[in-house]
Amino acid sequence: MPDSDREMLPVYPDLECFREHENTPEIIPGRATRDWMDETNSRFAYRCTPLPIANSSGWEIIMPFSIAAHWNGGNLPTDVVITSDEPGELVKHLAVPAFGHGILTFHPGYLFRTSPGWAIAARGAPNTVKDGITALEGLVETDWLPFTFTMNWRFTRPGTVHFEKGEAFCFLSLVPHAALDHIQPRLRTFDEAEELKQSFEHWRKGRNDFHARLAEGDPETVKQGWQRDYVKGRDPSGRFEPDFHLSRRRLKSPI
Questions:
Q1: Fewer CB within 10 Å, N or C, the chain?
Q2: What is the phi/psi pair of residue 124, to 5°?
Q3: In a domain, 255, yes or no
Q4: pLDDT of 2 strictly over 60
Q5: What is residue 177's three-state secondary structure?
Q6: What b/e readout covers 175-199, taking b as 16+ CB neighbours within 10 angstroms?
Q7: Of 153, 180, 207, which residue is a domain's last?
Q8: How far apart are CA 31 and CA 249, in angstroms?
C-alpha cells in the first residue's frame, strides 16, 4: 500500500462477514463479564476498568453446540479426538484436528473483509483462562485476502478439554496494521513534560496516602473502598475527560 494511502486509513473501518454456509456460528459483541471476575470478593476485579473494557473490545464467535476434545500427547492429527452429541458433519464444519502436535482447529465459518489498512486479530477471549489448552493468536490481512482463516488452540498437556455451547472459541479485534510500521516509539523523561510530571506526582501521592489510610483502617477510607478516578474519567486534579474516557463498550451486533 502506498504511503499516501496508509495516511488515509478510515477512522471507522468496515467489517463484513460473509457466511460460508447456512450453519455458521453466531457472532456477538464481546461480553464484559467473566466467571472468575464475578467470584472475586465484592466482584473487585471489575474495579480495574481496563479488564472489562478489554473483554468487550471485539466480537466473539460462539460455540453453536458443545464438544469435547482429547489429546493423547502424540504429534499426529489423529492423536486429537473430538466428540459431540451433534451429527458428525456439523462437528466437522466447526472443529477438526488439522495440524497435529496437539492443535485443535476451529473453522469460524466466515470470510471476513475489512477496510484497507485494517486487519483482524483472531485470538481467545481476553482475560479467559482455559485449563489444559491455550488459544493461539493470529493477525490476518482481511483487507485483501479472498479466503478464510482458522482459529487454533494448542493443548498444554495430554487430556480432555470441553468447549460448551455459548462459549467463545474466537475473539475478533480490528487492528490498523498498515500504520504500525510507521509508529516511532520515543523514550522521554518527565523533565520534558512538566505538566504531566506534576499530574503523575499528584496521583502517586494521593494513591499512596489512600493505601496508607486503608491499611490503618480509617473508617471513611474503608467505607470508600477504592479510588474511582479512572472509572469516572477524572484526572488527579479533578478534571473530567468525557471525550476520551471509556467505562464500558457498546459494540454493534452483525446485521
A1: C
A2: -80, 160
A3: no
A4: no
A5: helix
A6: bbbbeeeeeeeeeeeeeeeeeeeee
A7: 180
A8: 9
Predicted TM-score (pTM) above 0.90: no
**SS3 state of residue 156:** coil
- Quickly tell me which residue has 485476502 as its cell: 145
What domain range is 210 assigned to? 188-250
Looking at the fold, whether 229 and 171 belong to one and the same domain comes out as no
Contact predicate 112/120, CB 8 Å:
yes
Predicted confidence (pLDDT) per residue in 135-174, tens digit: 999 999 999 999 999 999 999 999 999 999 999 999 999 9
Beta strand pairing call for 103-106 and 151-155 = antiparallel
Considering the domain architecture, whether residues 108 and 30 belong to the same structural domain is answered as yes
Question: Does residue 195 share a domain with residue 85?
Answer: no
Nearest-angstrom CA–CA distance, 130 and 150: 19
User: Can you tell me the distance from the alpha carbon of 8 to that of 241, in angstroms, rounded to the nearest whole number?
Assistant: 27
CATH number of the domain encompassing residue 161 = 2.70.40.10
Query: What pLDDT is recorded for position 88?
Result: 83
40-51 average pLDDT score: 91
Say yes or no: 121 and 194 in one domain.
no
Give yes or no: residues 85 and 45 share one domain: yes
